[in-house]
Amino acid sequence: MRAPFRTVAIVGFLALLAGCGSDPAPPAGASAGAGASASPAGGTDALGHGPRPTATPTKAPAKSCNGALPADNVWRADVTKLPVHARSTAMVASIGASSAMHPDFGSGDYEGAPIGIPVTTVPAGQKKISVEFEYADESDRGPYPIPANAKVEGGPQADGDRHVIAFDKAACKVYELFSAYPRGSGWKAGSGAVFDLRSNKLRPAGWTSADASGLSIFAGLVRYEEVATGRIDHAIRITVPKTRTGFTWPATHSASSATDANLPQLGQRLRLKSSVGTGSMPKQARIVAEAMKRYGVIVADHGSAWYISGAPDSHWDNDALRALKSLTGSDFEVVDTSSLIASKTSGAVR
Q: Where is this chain compositionally biased, Low complexity type (predicted)?
């Protein structure tokens, strides 16, 4: 369910003589490399040593992209010591203090579709196609490297949010669409956004994304590959039935006209209380719960109360994940994130 919205470089002299061609120069101040000669070519050095083989600079290996945002990004901020928001109790009550948490992801199918918001990993060089947007003035124009067979939330015949997420590991970018439908050789969508996972840049104030909050969906998904490492190191995307107008950093978009101060805003951060016991939970559920204690959850869209988002995966143990349903709204508290803000145009924390 979703509310409508609008949304270095000095190259050694000898290396040049050696014909390093189009290879990029090493970073400024970098060593010429083991084996590089410090004496004129063909000559001897001050100690009478003859010429050594000239090293040819090599390209630095590309930094692997595992889908994590920068370490100083707000999604990865530890919120265990942040103060409780002055209206925490009222906001939690408006969401549903007695309502149970629901992991909206898992293994297997529900009504013929995978459970969760799927991610399509695309190879380097994936052909980019055009996307026609309903809210083009708040969408990144593209083109987008989304294949015709990209996975759609809810399945090809779904009539819900129909999110499509393409993860380009080589470029370390995610391309996200809301209400996406194949159209000819491309796609049609309500809105879309491109996020560079190496950057802390936020969308312009007032802009939506594929999520009502203007945030990345991918950034807040629980993914099995993270849990398999034993920990999740970021906040988790959550939906609530109703928000008030305006938005809380790092969100950039509002999707409500309600003015009740007891309602949360999009972008509001909550955390699982430290007093809530999680040690007896099955491992998969415990790792998720521990992340909600340390990094919290971020209100990203309208939907059912306390639904946390994840990507479907055959390795999920649905019985283990159901342990998260033992948590209720009263186990959470809203935190005040204002002390983290370095700039309202950036997701970097101080």
A: 26-43, 53-63
Helix %, strand %, coil % of the chain (to 5): 15, 20, 65
- Tens-digit pLDDT profile for residues 270-289: 999 999 999 999 999 999 99
* Residue 276 buriedness (CB in 10 A; 0-12 / 13-18 / 19+): middle
Beta bridge partner(s), residue 173: 168, 196
Q: How far apart are CA 177 and CA 211, in angstroms?
A: 9
pTM here is 0.82
161's CB contacts (< 8 A; 6+ apart) are 2, 153, 154, 178, 179, 301
Q: What Cα–Cα distance (Å) separates residue 244 from each residue in 158, 215, 347?
A: 28, 17, 22
Token pair recorded at residue 23:
């290879």
Helix (H/G/I), strand (E/B), else coil: 136: helix
Separation of alpha carbons 222 and 321, rounded Å: 12
Is residue 74 within 8 Å of 340, Cβ to Cβ? Answer: yes
Phi-psi region of 125 (alpha: psi -120 to 50; beta: other; left: phi over 0): left
Q: What is the dihedral of CA 106, 111, 114, 117, to 10 degrees?
A: -90
What is the average pLDDT value for the chain, to the nearest integer? 86
**Edge-to-edge strands of the sheet including 102-104?**
102-104, 307-309, 236-240, 297-302, 269-272, 332-334
Q: Are the C-beta atoms of 217 and 175 separated by less than 8 Å? A: no
The b-or-e profile of 71-86 (16+ CB within 10 A means b, else e) is eebbbbbebeebeebe
In angstroms, rounded to a whole number, what is the distance separating the alpha carbons of residues 199 and 75? 12
- Condensed to tens digits (0 to 9), the pLDDT of residues 45-77 reads 333 333 433 344 444 444 569 999 999 999 999
Name the pairing type of β-strands 102-104 and 307-309. Answer: parallel
Distances (CA, A) of 330 to 91, 155, 306, 323: 11, 34, 11, 16
pLDDT in tens, 178-196: 999 999 999 999 999 999 9
Task: Give residue for tokens 């909050």.
Answer: 213
CA distance 278 to 325: 12
